[in-house]
Amino acid sequence: MNTHLFLFGGSPPFTNKMAKLFIEKLKDKTGPLSILFVDREGWEGYMPKYTSAMEEYSINNFYLLPLPTTPVEQVIQAIQMSSGIIIGGGDTNLYADYLVDTPISNIIKDCFLSGVPVAGFSAGALISSNHCVISPKDNPQKEFQHRKGLGLITDHLLAVHFTEWNDENHLRNAVNYIHASSNYGIDEKTGAYFLNGHLAATEGKGVYSIENNVLVKISKNSF
Q1: β partners of residue 86
Q2: Alpha-carbon distance 47 to 158, whole Å?
Q3: 10 Å Cβ neighbour count for 94?
Q4: Which of 37, 55, 58, 93 has its CA at 20 to 30 Å from residue 142's CA atom?
Q5: Is 13 helix (H, G, I), strand (E, B) or coil?
Q6: Predicted confidence (pLDDT) at residue 87 exceeds the cutoff of 80
Q7: What CA–CA distance (Å, rounded) separates 124 from 152?
Q8: Is 141 helix (H, G, I), strand (E, B) or coil?
Q9: Is the pLDDT of residue 138 over 80?
Q10: pLDDT (tens digit, 9 = 90+) per residue, 18-62?
Q11: Are 105 and 99 within 8 A, CB to CB?
């Protein structure tokens, strides 16, 4: 079974081609999409940023699952019935707290391995790998942090808001510290599609990688 992971370097919405590809990969075009996000005041008004691109393709059935206020069993049941899963952005450490090493993470991974596409925005992208590296610009301690991630892809290092945060040094620190086989810095308004754990397509401002100690820009068009 093929796996489909869509990672975005900033906030929603989906980039245009990535939205179309995500829809194409849904296991059931009539099934609901689960959107997991950290609960915060006014979240209802923010949801159209996630749903608008889907609604353009007549996808109108969503499970909105604020964390941690939605009971775990309710989250699990929603994910099990979903044709696609979206993990939102915000405080990366909170997303890791509420999802990684929980019963929810097990269900996400099971569905993902069965072919359900998963999309992660910013924090949602960072927790997707087995290594979750967090920029000093993304935590109150202003320090490099390394946490366990969901493991939807393995041996990948990811940085988000890459150009906007001028975070090349952060990615280099991660590469020097962890020595993973692949690393990617993803800009805002940019998507990267991973097919079976390998980068297959990019869209947007820029995706970068440190190769042989040199930062290079990557462009893949498999649409």
Answers
A1: 35, 119
A2: 25
A3: 15
A4: 37
A5: coil
A6: yes
A7: 11
A8: coil
A9: yes
A10: 999 999 999 777 789 999 999 999 998 999 999 999 999 889 999
A11: yes
Backbone angle region of 100, left / alpha / beta, with phi > 0 → left and psi within -120 to 50 → alpha: beta
Q: What gap in Å lies between CA 124 and CA 102, rounded to an integer?
A: 15
Distance from C-alpha of 88 to C-alpha of 22, rounded to nearest angstrom: 15
Structure tokens at 201: 């397509």
Q: Which residue do the tokens 């393709």 mark?
A: 57
Chain centroid offset of residue 68 CA: 18
Per the DSSP assignment, residues forming a β-bridge with 119 are 6, 86
Q: How far is residue 101's CA from residue 206's CA, in Å, rounded to a whole number?
A: 31
pLDDT computed for residue 77 by the predictor = 97
The per-residue pLDDT of the chain, averaged, comes to 95
Q: Which two tokens stand for residue 188?
A: 């805002």
pTM of full prediction above 0.85: yes
H or E segment to which residue 177 belongs: helix 168-178
